[in-house]
Write a structure and sequence with these properties.
- The chain has helices at 10-23, 135-142, 146-214; strands spanning 29-33, 38-45, 50-58, 69-74, 80-84, 89-95, 100-108, 120-128.
- The chain is an alpha+beta fold.
- α2 crosses α3 (146-214).
- It is elongated, with a radius of gyration of 32 Å.
- The N and C termini lie far apart (106 Å).
Length: 219
């Protein structure tokens, strides 16, 4: 029995669902923060991008005091986007103004002491772009159906991918222009060096010829 072709629109929907499954939600990052230590996480983010995050710092096991650490988020220019002293648990959000490298630093305030101080557990869940948007709130405000919400999510995801490709194309063009400019400068410098060497060799020939004539070694 021959198989019937899939109905129109089915391949696109399957591709969209596969794209969502491929991207998937970002998982939180967890690491140990020793006493009086400082650990930073860096990430490059595009301009005009919403960035949200949640963090939680756990007290060391067996410690009589609670967690003690400072959190600071800055860009490459040192501008502070978020700062919290004695951070234990909280959320942050900001929108980037330009494509830049952003850094989130956790600095422990626990004293090292004479013995071994247990490390603090830091959990950071940082999202940006499509992942940072709360589509449940968007659905409530705009009264969207579940399928419309998924289509909105796919639209934002597709736009994000297109923007990423456009940025990579722009960077490739800039790098190509830089390479061409460098090659041109190297070519001109090589020609200039050759002209200098030819001029120096010619001058040496005439100088030695005059020298030998002055010594009457040649006619």
């Amino acid at each position: 029995m021959p198989l019937s072709p899939p109905p129109p629109g089915r391949p696109r929907l399957s591709l969209a669902l596969a794209l969502l499954l491929l991207v998937g939600p970002a998982r939180p990052i967890s690491f140990q923060l020793p006493g009086k230590a400082r650990k930073c996480l860096r990430e490059e983010i595009h301009r005009d991008t919403l960035v949200t995050g949640e963090y939680e710092i756990g007290a060391p096991p067996g410690s009589s005091t609670g967690p003690s650490a400072n959190l600071k988020i800055t860009d490459s220019a040192g501008h502070i986007l978020y700062a919290k002293e004695d951070a234990t648990k909280g959320k942050f959000a900001f929108t980037t103004e330009d494509y830049d490298m952003f850094e989130a630093c956790f600095e422990s305030k626990l004293p090292v002491g004479t013995g071994r101080m247990p490390d603090q557990l830091v959990i950071l869940d940082m999202k940006h772009g499509v992942e940072a948007k709360n589509y449940e709130e968007i659905a409530k405000v705009e009264k969207l159906k579940p399928l419309e919400v998924e289509l909105r999510r796919l639209e934002d995801l597709s736009e994000s991918i297109v923007n990423d490709f456009a940025y990579m194309k722009k960077r490739e063009e800039e790098m190509r222009d830089t390479n061409e400019s460098t090659n041109t400068r190297v070519l001109y410098f090589s020609i200039f060096s050759m002209c200098c060497l030819i001029g120096l060799a010619t001058w040496q020939v005439f100088y030695l010829r005059r020298f030998f004539k002055a010594k009457k070694l040649i006619e």
